[in-house]
Design brief:
single chain; 136 residues; alpha+beta; OB fold (Dihydrolipoamide Acetyltransferase, E2P); Arc Repressor Mutant, subunit A; 2 domains; 3 helices; 31% strand; elongated
Length: 136
């Protein structure tokens, strides 16, 4: 079976390495999910959907848990923040919050968080206060 970049696949999480997690793709192919692109806990032998990010010369694949491409990624990140806000009413994070706080609260990198709150602010869906974010 041939894959193309962006194809959705089923993966099984394997052993954690220095670089990330080895994965089995569609029960047949090997791939790697890089640690710096994982923003949620993963359990070995768990199954989930993922996407082909890169096809390497050695015949293995780089995998992403999110579909690549700015529009899809930013929509997904905005949805994550909005769901969290709808659940709790406000979010005690700002663009000055530490990467660790942001990761713990919304499971996003600081860079992704700042982009998403920028989009939500421009769309007038959130209000940025001195110490928190609230739904508008």
């Amino acid at each position: 079976m041939e894959f193309e970049i962006g194809d959705q696949v089923e993966i099984i999480i394997g052993r954690e390495t220095d670089l990330g997690f080895n994965v089995i793709i569609n029960e047949s192919f090997e791939g790697l999910l890089y640690k710096n692109e994982v923003f949620e806990p993963l359990e070995r032998n768990s199954r989930r959907s993922a996407y082909i990010k890169k096809i390497r010369e050695d015949g293995k694949f780089d995998i992403s848990l999110q579909l690549q491409g700015f529009l899809h990624v930013i929509e997904s990140q905005c949805d994550k923040i909005l769901k969290r806000l709808k659940k709790s009413g406000d979010l005690y994070l700002t663009d000055k919050s530490s990467p660790e706080e942001i990761l713990q609260e919304v499971h996003l990198s600081k860079k992704a968080f700042k982009k998403a709150i920028g989009v939500l602010y421009k769309k007038k869906k959130i209000k940025l206060e001195k110490d928190r974010i609230v739904l508008q």
